[in-house]
């Protein structure tokens, strides 16, 4: 609202209507929202491509020296992704809390390429890795299986390191 002096004796109140974008926000605020909206869209695109451990299931019991299959699933996405590599590790947590999967992966069970493929329709692309549970005595009880995936997304491209983990129970 503006007050305009029409003459010495009269004042007029002039209302200036604001233009609203999408009926929600004044347009002059849109320039401040553009970076926020862009960031949220990018984060959503990255999360849409986030891989996860298909199996073994969280809490599964495994034996030392046993071969297990680790399935790493990557949801299909319209945004391009270039796979760089994958590391699978097992960290003993029997007598202390496990370190976060993005800080330490423990004993490396696999490192190398990751090339998920469609196996069922409908379904998501995945790749299975057969790894061996370490035989060392300190692998008893609670352990953390972690999968760390490095990939590039978008036209830029932008580097992304994902870390996923589940808890296993290692028995002799």
Automatic annotation (TrEMBL):
A Pfam short name: Nis1
InterPro entries, A to Z: Nis1
Name of the molecule in the record: Uncharacterized protein
Organism this protein belongs to: Lyophyllum shimeji
């Amino acid at each position: 609202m503006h007050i305009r002096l029409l003459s010495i004796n009269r004042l007029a109140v002039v209302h200036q209507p604001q233009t609203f974008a999408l009926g929600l926000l004044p347009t002059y605020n849109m320039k401040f929202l553009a970076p926020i909206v862009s960031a949220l869209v990018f984060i959503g695109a990255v999360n849409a491509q986030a891989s996860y451990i298909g199996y073994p299931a969280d809490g599964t019991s495994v034996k030392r020296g046993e071969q297990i299959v680790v399935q790493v699933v990557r949801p299909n996405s319209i945004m391009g992704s270039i796979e760089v590599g994958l590391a699978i590790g097992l960290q003993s947590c029997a007598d202390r809390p496990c370190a976060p999967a993005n800080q330490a992966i423990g004993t490396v069970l696999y490192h190398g390429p990751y090339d998920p493929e469609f196996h069922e329709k409908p379904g998501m692309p995945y790749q299975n890795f057969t790894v061996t549970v370490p035989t060392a005595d300190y692998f008893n009880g609670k352990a953390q299986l972690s999968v760390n995936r490095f990939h590039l997304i978008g036209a830029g491209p932008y580097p992304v390191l994902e870390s996923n983990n589940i808890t296993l129970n290692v028995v002799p």
